[in-house]
Specification:
The protein is of the alpha+beta class. It is 26% helix and 30% strand. It contains eight helices and 20 strands.
């Protein structure tokens, strides 16, 4: 089905939200269930435990389990601090957390650690930007928090935008006033349906499908099955294998039956274009090493241009390290969510 469609429902007994673009699965959010103690986005009161010499961080005690915080300045063992879960992790490891809290809604992001009023760069009309800046200044008057107005504000009702700003500002005020005490969950992570409503609002979807059967009718359950296998079929009979290990994510690109001189570059470009989507849908992050199909060394610049273009619009922070002496390509992707296989192996 053509267009941008948000599908709300359940998959394998879990609340789920899927974003389809012209019949292809572009994003998928699943309730992690018992896969992690706290889901990404949750805000907690934590207690500083001990610094890890040589690791550049400190462990903190959370309401459930422990977290690892890289910002260590001015912290002392036993100190109560506010943290937000920044992503997923492997079973048995500490959750990544940050003290740079973000209070997100559909239209606004309140940023206590980053003062200033900002409007999304995707809103380019000068009159619209000026009106939104005035609305933000009025709604945040007297507050030291920062504010980012999201691109969904463009064309939105002013009262709705102001209501979102006020709600996030009030929530931030309440949480920041609740520092003292033992570890406690203060703001739960959004549910998949809430996150979809919040983060997939721009551009506005062409349709929203929900109810029993919606996931099946739009092919989401079939797409999920494909994500549970290492093999990803590419154009022209080529394929890539995506295999997570304890140390890194290994990606191997193969041309298949095509042995023509141009086959390597064609397969590699197809893999590069689909790799960001595959990592996002599989919930994979950390070090990624790609063994591209053989091709002339002179084609590396062309392929690297395709890789950079493919990752440019990704929400997860990604660092492209480049080519290794052995001819592989390395990148580092932030673990911004729980791995799909980890979620599905845990109880709902």
């Amino acid at each position: 089905m053509k267009g941008r469609i948000v599908v709300l429902g359940h998959l394998r007994g879990r609340e789920a939200a899927a974003l389809m673009q012209d019949g292809q699965l572009e994003d998928l959010i699943l309730d992690p269930g018992s896969a992690v103690a706290l889901a990404p986005g949750a805000i907690c009161r934590a207690v500083v435990d001990r610094q890890m010499k040589g690791q550049g961080g400190v462990f903190v005690r959370l309401p459930e389990g422990r977290g690892f915080l890289r910002e260590t300045g001015g912290l002392a063992p036993g100190q109560a601090i506010l943290v937000q879960v920044a992503g997923g992790t492997e079973p048995g490891k500490a959750l990544p957390v940050t003290t740079r809290l973000l209070f997100k809604s559909r239209y606004a992001i309140v940023t206590p650690a980053a003062p200033g009023l900002n409007v999304s760069r995707r809103i380019r009309d000068d009159d619209t930007r000026t009106a939104l800046e005035a609305l933000a200044a009025e709604a945040m008057a007297g507050s030291a928090h920062g504010l980012i107005l999201r691109s969904a504000c463009d064309g939105a009702d002013n009262a709705e935008v102001q209501g979102d700003i006020t709600a996030m500002r009030d929530l931030a005020d309440a949480v920041l006033a609740d520092v003292s005490g033992q570890p406690e969950l203060l703001v739960d992570a959004p549910s998949p349906h809430e996150e979809a409503w919040r983060d997939w609002a721009d551009p506005a979807p062409d349709d929203i499908a929900d109810g029993e059967g919606a996931m099946h009718d739009h092919g989401v359950d079939d797409a999920l099955e494909a994500l549970l296998t290492p093999r990803v079929d590419l154009t022209g009979g080529a394929h890539m294998m995506i295999e997570p290990t304890r140390a890194l994510i290994a990606v191997d690109v193969n041309t298949g039956a095509d042995t023509s001189p141009a086959a390597g570059l064609k397969a590699n470009i197809a893999a590069a274009r689909d790799l960001p989507r595959q990592l996002r849908l599989r919930g994979l992050g950390g070090q990624v090493t790609v063994d591209f199909a053989p091709m002339p060394k002179k084609d590396r610049a062309t392929l690297e241009q395709q890789i950079r273009a493919a990752f440019r619009g990704e929400a997860a922070e990604t660092s492209l390290a480049g080519w290794t002496p052995l001819g592989n390509f390395e990148l580092q992707r932030k673990r911004d969510r729980v791995a799909l296989t980890t979620i599905l192996e845990a109880a709902p």
